[in-house]
Fold:
Amino acid sequence: MGGEVVVGEVVGTAVVVVDDVVAVVVVVVVVVVVVASMAVVVDAAVVLSSPLSQETRSRIGTNQRQGRVGDGSTVCDTTGVGRRPVVGLLVLALVAALATCSANREPRTASGWTPRAADTELSAGAVLLPAEAEVATPPDTVQPPAPPPTVPAVLSSTGIVTPVIGRDGDAWKVSTPCGREAVLTSATPLPTGPVVLDPGHGGYDPGAVGPNGLRESELNLAVSRHAAAALERAGFTTVMTRNDDHGMNLVNRARLAIGLEAKAFVSVHHNAASWAPSAIPGSEMYHQEKSAESKRLAGLIYEEIVAALRVYDVPWVTSGAGVTWRTKANGDDWYAMVNQPRGVTAALAELAFISNPAEADLLADPEVQRVEGEAVARGIIRFLTTSDAGSGYVEGGQMPPRPRTGTGPRGGGGGWDECDDPVL
Ligand SMILES: [Zn+2]
Structure:
């Protein structure tokens, strides 16, 4: 029995691997030789282990030498036990080998063998074994190329930040600021873990426009540049979602924050549609409703920006908000730049009211833009380096919806035909 199992495995394995008529014949011959050898060994073992007297062993030896087999005596029966299995095993081996060959003759498909249900487990091992063998002893010392490093975003040769969506040979496949696909043959990978600043609007989307013609998109960019410079001076690597006055869709802004694993993501805006006069700058900060860290980030920036601007003698206006949150009916954060950077601590800053003539004139001053930017940077640095709580939190619920005001499309929603991609 044990011999048949071994024979079956040897034959079965050999046939599966070789799968050739000639090879099968060779296998059968090999099996016959092996079994014959085994039979001789079995035969000798039977004789040696037989509980016979020395006299009987001598007779057996004599009979064998004289070629006499099976004369009906006890002795001959004993020797017969050692002989008949030899012939039986040879026959069984041939039958088993041929049966195994036949069993493996399953119908072929154009792509090769049709796996049998019973081969499911074996085929899994058969797939794994060659791979493991190749890993252990690579043929001809040829190593597969290393996989490309995971780069979430690159800086184009013209200074445009773009999220990477794949590789095209040695080139980068990127999503342009307006969300179109492009291939860059030369670009600089951006490091992960930076602060990401998001100057709101841009290009075709000016955001709110002040009575003095000041465009929110340009103001946001100028303030963000000052904030980024201050952060870099303090040793914090900073990436801006846009470095120039071009359109940028919201999906890619969030994609950059997520892909770059931003330590903090702050979308920089200026407000419109004031409600009432205020003794202090009417700055608003929106945080992720379910994130205590986002709330703290917003509170610290609020604290810094109000402290920086309140020194100016300006008739401030406000909408009544300080640091707050706003959600949709389904509980998601309302504002895209707070909602979409999932997993990233994000805040939306509305630093002052560009729609208020007095504030618009103040904000047009490059020095004030620097003051604003550096205040934003200080809030972020305190968030990253302290456990300060921040301030300005509005108690009693979220900001109620307000009618949209200002000129131009708000938000730069992505996919809009008007979006003007810069040269990459
Ligand atoms: Zn805005």
Q: What stands out?
A: The pocket of zinc ion is lined by residues 200-201, 207, 216, 269 (CB under 6 Å). The chain has eleven helices and 15 strands. The two ends are 75 Å apart (CA to CA). Confidence is low (pLDDT under 50) at residues 1-24, 39-86, 97-139, 403-415.
